[in-house]
Write a structure and sequence with these properties.
Length: 131
């Protein structure tokens, strides 16, 4: 909870009540670089049992140093230790993150097109990885 301000500086999509649930349910990670908050990862459970990374975000000054990869590997190890056999992530097709996830062994698994007024966006690409 003491990192709330930093979290919301990087994550503008998470409602405050959901942040409290993430803390309670331990479904988020704060990345520290030399004791300084540098990034975050949050997830939920797709179909109530498949860990699904909702957001991976590294603060601008810490990007391209391998921190995102380290954070993903940590999350993957934690999920494997909990007995999970598969992980999911997603990103919009117009974003570069898809290449990052593929380098980590994630495979394309389909997409979602949202065209309803107020929800339009480029296709959301889903990727999966077996553990």
């Amino acid at each position: 909870m003491e990192d709330r301000d930093f979290w919301f500086r990087l994550d503008s999509h998470l409602p405050a009540a959901e942040f409290e649930k993430k803390v309670r349910d331990r479904q988020g990670y704060l990345l520290l670089a030399d004791e300084t908050p540098a990034g975050l990862l949050r997830y939920n459970l797709f179909w109530d049992h498949i860990p699904f990374c909702n957001l991976l975000f590294i603060d601008r000054e810490y990007r391209r140093r391998g921190y995102g990869r380290l954070l993903m590997i940590h999350w993957e190890e934690q999920m494997k230790a909990q007995g999970c056999g598969m992980l999911m992530v997603s990103t919009q097709v117009d974003e570069q993150a898809q290449h990052f996830y593929r380098k980590l062994g994630y495979q394309d698994a389909g997409g979602l097109l949202l065209s309803l007024p107020g929800y339009e966006q480029p296709m959301e690409l889903f990727l999966v990885k077996g553990l």
